[in-house]
Design a protein that fits this description.
- It contains seven helices and five strands, in the order ααααβααββββα.
- The protein has about 160 residues and is an alpha+beta fold.
- It has two domains: about 5-65, Arc Repressor Mutant, subunit A, CATH 1.10.10; about 80-160, Glutaredoxin, CATH 3.40.30.10.
- A hairpin with a 5-residue loop joins strand 2 (about 110) and strand 3.
- Helix 1 (about 5-15) packs antiparallel against helix 2 (about 25-40) and helix 3 (about 45-55) packs across helix 4 (about 55-65).
- The radius of gyration is 17 Å and the shape is elongated.
- It starts with a helix and ends with a helix.
- The mean pLDDT is about 95.
């Protein structure tokens, strides 16, 4: 499998960051970095990461099934995660998620027809003090109202 030169450098650094025999610790960051570059985690990527860190493809698949931030199918260019855990739920995070789905015309982990935006209901993004919170790719947005969400989504649709 071929990766960008930048990703190959990251992988090499990760694999040398851990003591001998502990390269499997690089698995999750490798999957995250590769997912950012490729858009999702394919069977080919699973095989490649397993080979590089010295584990079976089954072990990589076990990690994939546990971590919700790792995705087997392509998501939108802008992935909107709406927290509905207790703090956000108490501040209408569930209604915010429903609002996003209705506005975009898609459901959980679905992608708009133009491939630009996907939405996902998530358990916690660690922003409980600023509920309700959402995350777009790696950017956090706090104290989100339906109006703020509309503004954000409209802005995403205008980005190239």
């Amino acid at each position: 499998m071929t990766f960008s030169p930048q990703l190959e450098v990251r992988f090499a650094k990760l694999l040398t960051s851990y003591p001998p025999g502990r390269q499997r610790s690089a698995m999750i960051p490798m999957l995250l970095y590769a997912q950012d570059e490729l858009g999702h985690i394919s069977d080919e990527l699973i095989e490649e990461v397993a080979r590089r860190v010295g584990v079976s493809t089954l072990q990589v698949n076990e990690v994939l099934s546990y971590y919700s931030m790792l995705h087997r199918k392509p998501l939108g260019k802008f992935h909107v995660q709406v927290c509905t855990n207790i703090s956000c739920l108490l501040h209408d995070g569930d209604k915010l998620y429903e609002h996003a789905c209705k506005k975009l015309g898609i459901g959980h982990k679905e992608v708009t027809a133009d491939g630009q935006i996907s939405v996902e209901e998530v358990e916690c993004i660690g922003a409980c003090s600023w509920a309700p919170a959402i995350q777009v790719n790696y950017d956090f947005h706090h104290f989100v109202t339906p109006e703020k969400l509309d503004e954000l989504l409209n802005g995403l649709r205008k980005k190239p």
